[in-house]
Amino acid sequence: MLSPSSAGRVTRGQIITLGLFVCGLAVCVFSGISLLWALGFGLVCFSGYARSVGFSFPVIAALLFQGVRRIANILTIFTLIGMLTGVWRISGTIPMLIDWALSLINPTFFVLWSFLLCATLSSLIGTAFGTVSTLGVVCMLMAHTAGFNETLVGGAILSGIYVGDRCSPMSSSAALICALTHTDIYGNFKRMLRNGAAPFFLTCLGYALLSLPGPEHVMPEGATDALREHFRFHFWVLLPALVILLFGLLRIDVKIAMATSIVCASGAAVFLQGTPLSALLSSMVLGYEAPVGELAMLGGGGIISMATVAAIVALSSSYSALFEKSGLLDSFEYMIERLALRMGAFRATALVGVLTTGLSCNQTLSIILTRQLCAHAQHNRREMAMYLENSVVLLSAVLPWSIAFSMCGLTLQQGPEIIPFALYLWMVPLYWCLRSRDVHQSCPRPLLQFLLAKKKHRD
Questions:
Q1: Tens of pLDDT along 28-58?
Q2: Bond before 215 cis per omega within 30 degrees
Q3: What span, in angstroms and rounded, lies between the C-alpha atoms of 130 and 274?
Q4: Are 193 and 418 in contact (CB under 8 A)?
Q5: CB within 8 Å of 225: residues ≥ 6 apart
Q6: How far apart, in Å, are the Cα atoms of 429 and each of 42, 173, 198, 346, 372?
Q7: pTM score of the predicted model
Q8: Which of 95, 150, 183, 219 is the most buried (most CB within 10 A)?
Q9: Whole-angstrom distance, CA of residue 101 vs CA of residue 150
């Protein structure tokens, strides 16, 4: 039986197991090897630990399958997101949104407009990488042409592309958090809009001040000519985006909303853009391939673009039931719960999020690990969903070695110097750290009682 003196003690087996996993992650990060190899190695390590504490191999296999089964629904959503991001490109939906966005830019507040436009597009398509590789690239090109401060613009773009990652119904990270916390994505969306309004306004104010004085002109000559030449812009081209907005307001299941949007976009591609069915199917599966170099920024999307993140989620989620039953993370959960009692559940979650991101260099894995480690620091499922969205989802992009930043920085051809100017990524966690009053409400159950209950359940 656990005693108060030993409840939070980390065993040698736990240290060795987690140490091997961290070493595997480090090798993959520094050598450029796919993170999937590290996750596979972790699967072996964690299974070995479970075997050492008395679990049979059939039981371990059943626990791994149970972990994957918990997130089966999100794998379907990932597939739909991939199809949608491909078909929105070939149908002209994303090109028309970009053309419309560029026509709105006010040179006087260029940094602010870069943030707002990237935030709008990322909220519609739910992907930071998809936004930065399209509208983000265009905004950076305009800043370069006008001779404006590219570091400021890069920070604004980095901020804007993660607005949708945090709260869009189309976001894969938002869908993952809903699956992990067993919450409703539209309910989370509504709460995030409400509790994120103040930091969003403060971010806009900051970028408005940084925009002054702006350039006299930013629109390169013929900036949208290639888009208008290769795509027909019509009201029906915007229908796929309007479907997502309308179905969201009506709180219709996100899978139905995505499927309907895909059908509408397919119709626009075939009947308005004259796209062959073979090209349409290829865009859904393999992603859109630009027919000319001027449209290269639009390339991407498709089911294949979600393959890696789906594999990471499946492998990472397979750990969850194994962690719970084997008690591998119990001591660490105890430490974090004590930390939450001292500094508040949100602050503890944000700190753990930074540490897990720093170790894994991956937003998806850090979300899963943070949820696992902080599960008992906040017992309210809706609050935990908000904590994850307001911390690890955004903070994963402020570490220079994280994939969440490095991919965006590489696309924009900007270095870590833009991170301090990504105001939204800092503003939301800081705002919640300052307003959090849950220091004495984080852990309604005594710590020792929680650990004893877990031990009894395993026995």
A1: 877 777 778 888 888 888 888 888 888 888 8
A2: no
A3: 24
A4: no
A5: none
A6: 30, 17, 12, 9, 20
A7: 0.73
A8: 95
A9: 19
